[in-house]
Structures are given as structure tokens and as C-alpha cells.
Automatic annotation (TrEMBL):
One of its GO terms (molecular function) is isocitrate dehydrogenase (NAD+) activity. Belongs to the isocitrate and isopropylmalate dehydrogenases family. Residues 5-356 form the Isopropylmalate dehydrogenase-like domain. One of its GO terms (biological process) is isocitrate metabolic process. Pfam families: Iso_dh. It comes from Daldinia eschscholtzii. It is an enzyme of class 1 (oxidoreductase). This is homoisocitrate dehydrogenase. Its EC number is 1.1.1.87. Its cofactor is Mg(2+).
Amino acid sequence: SRVLRIGLIPGDGIGREVIPAGRRILEALPSSLGLKFEFSDLHAGFETFEKTGAALPDRTVEVLRNECDGALFGAVSSPTKAVKGYSSPIVALRKKLDLYANVRPVKTVRTAAKPIDMVIVRENTEDLYVKEERTIERPDSEGGKYAEAIKRISERASSRIATMAGEIALRRQKIRDSSSSSSSIHSHPLVTITHKSNVLSQTDGLFRTASRAALSAPRFASALTIEEQIVDSMVYKLFRQPEAYDVIVAPNLYGDILSDGAAALVGSLGLVPSANVGEGFAIGEPCHGSAPDIEGKGIANPIATLRSTALMLEFLNEEDAAAKIYAAIDANLEEGKLLTPDLGGKATTEEVVQDILKKL
Ligand code: NAD
Ligand code: MN
């Protein structure tokens, strides 16, 4: 049997209420899968910062790097005002572990009025998020001060993220082919490259050509349809016709915006998972934040975390285990009896977790 070592980083607020659910579903997987799990409890977040002076303690990074195969990250609170010395631990983790892809599936269940089944693959290391900004002071007579930022796009990062998008599209098609075809809304795999190269011909232009080149590799070209969308018209189509999209690949900033926008299509942030993926390492992370308005009430929806747990397993090449978790979640949602308040139900986090564990 295979042993997977998983770091658990609950973070702040409802992160502490939902991450234990991820651990429990891993422990409840049938033994026939031949998987064993070892867990490390790790710290990060604003409370950790207030206690220790570091939002991301060195030990957390070292244990993840040296002792873990993957991790689950809950959510962290950001201070409303800038606090000296504080910066987001998840952004730092992406950098330190070179988690170059942010993958966000957005999917409704079979019984939903509008079927949606897409995944947004966002480049995670560059673009405007290299945070090389500066402010230039000028006298008012010369127009006053201004600020500028570097937008960096490399061929390597663009090619690598497009390759991952292609791999994901192939894997999704494989899963569709092996399950009952009627449950899928896509008959043919599609990868949509998103950019604004009509205006930003060098930066987004490079993203476009490097993505195109990567996706013209024979194993992709023979199996996938590749199309392009300018990002603003992409937003329009995404909201008008979300069912048309399968895999979307985008540079960091557009990917950030598209993936939060797409999450709005499925009703609750409490449903939407993500994974931060690098070579041989993946961190599952629900898309929501620490939700101070419901913290401590025991009603946080655990599904985003459970789906993130499954997504982490997919990137650790445990697709069968992931499929079991997705199926148990879908069964809970399709039945619609035990739902948390964000989905219009009355159930607690604990009741939903127990129902999904039972369905597993
Ligand atoms: P949020 O995601 O925490 O909450 C937005 C709304 O969605 C709230 O009404 C909340 O109750 C609801 N919600 C979120 N997750 C839910 C769940 N699992 N079940 C039921 N309802 C859920 O976003 P926010 O309120 O804008 O931010 C709160 C804090 O979280 C801030 O400090 C913010 O900086 C931080 N934040 C962190 C992350 C992250 O860690 N990745 C992401 C977004 C926000
Ligand atoms: Mn975002």
C-alpha cells in the first residue's frame, strides 16, 4: 500500500472547522484503495502571526518540503489595515514550493438547473503578481505622482501552465469516457486560452504564442480542440454560456478574476475547491476565506474542503480515491436533504460531514 503524508494547515476562522473534515474523509476511504495517510498539524495565518510574529513559520515550510506529499490549507484572515511584517502565507507558500498552477474546478451537480463543468487553470507565479511596483513623485506642475507595476510573462511559465491545462483536459476526457456518457455535458474536450494580446501584444502576446505552441504537441493536438478568447469577451461568454467551457487557461491576474467570477455561477463559495500544484506536490484549498460572520457557529459548508481534498488526491495520481469522494459529495447534494444554510438548508457542518462519510 502507498503511504501519503499530508500536512494540515487550518489557518484562521472557519478554516479550523472545515480542515478536520478533509482529514476524516481521507481516513474513511475504503482500504481496498491501498492508501494510508500520515498527518502533520501545521500552522499559518493571522493568529499564528499575532502569536509568533510569522504568518508562515519556517517549520511549516520545512515540514511540507521535506516530509509531505501534499497538504490541505483552510483559510486565513487578512488584517483590514496593512500590518507591518504581515503578508499572505498562501502567496508565500506558492512561491517557496513553486506551486506554479492554481486549478479551480467549477461544477454543478446533475440536478442543477444550469449544468456547468469547467476548470480554470491559472498561472500562479508571475504576471502583475511579481509585485514589482513603484511610485514616482513629481511636482504637480508636471502632472503629480504616478505609480507603475511590472507585468512579467515568461515563455517557460506560459508553456508549463498550458501543458498542465492540456493534461487536465486529457484526464477529464479519460474520466468521461470511462463513466456513463450521459452524465457529462461536454462531448469533446476543449481548452480555451485567455489573454488580451490585441492590446498587450508583447506580454499577453507571448502567453498566447507559448500556450499555442505547448498545446500543439501531438498528444494534445490529436485529442483536444484549442480555442482563444480575449479576456473581456471571455467574461461575457462565461456568464452567458458557462456550459460551453471545459478547461480555461489564463495568466495570473485574469485567472484570479475569472476563477472568482466563475465561482459565483454555482451558488455558494462553500462549494468551490482549488488546488495549488507544483512538480509532485499539491495543496488543496477551499476558495472561500475565514468567514468571520459564521465562525464558531458550526454551520460552515465543508464541501469546498472535501472537494479540495479530492482534487489534491488527483494531482497525487490517486484518481480512484478522488472519484469516490466526488461521488459521495454529489450524492449528498443531489439528495438535497442535509445542506448547510448557505445552500438553503438547516444542517450543521458535522451533519453534512457524517452524511458524506456514510455515502462514501
Ligand atoms: P469569505 O469567503 O470569508 O466569506 C464571504 C461570504 O461567504 C460570507 O458571508 C461567508 O459566511 C460565506 N462563506 C464563505 N465560506 C463559506 C462556507 N464554507 N460555508 C458557508 N458560507 C461560507 O470572504 P470575506 O468575508 O470577504 O473575507 C473574510 C476574511 O477571509 C478576510 O480576512 C479575507 O481577507 C479572508 N480571505 C481569505 C481567503 C483565503 O484564505 N484564500 C480568501 C478570501 C478571503
Ligand atoms: Mn482571488
